[in-house]
Design brief:
Blueprint: E1 2-3, H1 4-11, H2 15-24, E2 31-32, E3 38-40, H3 42-57, H4 61-67, H5 73-78, H6 87-131
Antiparallel strand pairs: 1-3, 2-3
């Protein structure tokens, strides 16, 4: 079991953020010591890292809450649960990820244009500085 400090080191989130995610229901309440200190399992850390990735995609906390509502669906299906049970969840997750994938691809195209322009400028500057 890991302390909140150890989890913050592994995930990059602050203790405040972990407690806030717990408060709003994005993160389930962790186990506690007799003194009340939070204890996290490796599974909890994996889940928190998933939350971090979803946040980096640009999902709002509301979307993350919706996305994670039924927990790790892929793991549940691998363990033998009927995928049909998760059809609404899978549809919602597909919708959310498709939206953000389209936005990321648009950003990549924009960045590709900026990179090409920067390379052209650099090439021009190199040529000009060689002429001097």
């Amino acid at each position: 079991m890991l302390t909140i400090s150890q989890v913050t080191e592994q995930t990059g989130l602050t203790a405040y953020t972990l407690r806030y995610y717990e408060k709003i229901g994005v993160l389930k309440n962790p186990q506690r010591t007799e003194g009340g200190a939070r204890l996290y399992s490796e599974s909890d850390v994996t889940y928190i890292q998933c939350l971090v990735h979803l946040k980096k995609l640009g999902l709002s906390l509301e979307e993350i809450t919706e996305f994670t509502r039924d927990g790790c669906v892929m793991e549940k299906i691998k363990q033998g649960e009927d995928p049909a049970h998760f059809t609404p969840t899978l549809s919602k997750r597909t919708e959310i990820l498709s939206k953000y994938l389209a936005e990321l691809e648009a950003k990549r195209q924009e960045l590709d244009g900026i990179i090409a322009m920067t390379r052209a400028k650099l090439e021009g500057y190199h040529e000009l500085s060689q002429d001097v």
